[in-house]
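Service request form, structural biology core

Requester: graduate student, group of Dr. S.
Request type: structure prediction, single chain
Budget code: on file
Notes: please return the result as structure tokens.

Sequence provided:
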Amino acid sequence: MTIEEPRSAAQRREDTLRRLEHDVDLWVATAESGTGAPALVPLSFRWDGETIMIATVASSPTARNLVAGGAARLALGATRDVIMIDCTVAETVPTAEIPADVGDAFAAKAGFDPRQDTDPYLYFSLRPHRVQAWREANELSGRTLMIKGRWR
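Core staff response, request fulfilled:
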């Protein structure tokens, strides 16, 4: 297996922003308040340049954990080209209250519209505070691209 040369921080950031703009799905990890029981689910998302919007059934463990704990870890990509994002909930909006343009934009990106489902959904806007990206061990150094909500 050939290992590519490590990317510069600028290239990693550009690659990360491209993935946030074009990828459709990511992994969402949350933990139950009190017990710490983990939940890990794949969900569709939409990046607006500042926050990552996801939608999930209001009664799901992920929704309950986000409402109670307010934090998540997101992952995009394969293990040899991963982006890890630690974030906090910036806003929670029930399906019935989502502005039409926001709901439409999410539906267009995700390929499904939670507003059409019979189960009530919640939309969560997640604000990144740490972003890391790496491909191989040679990119572990300098993998942190954002810290405390500021790009490096």
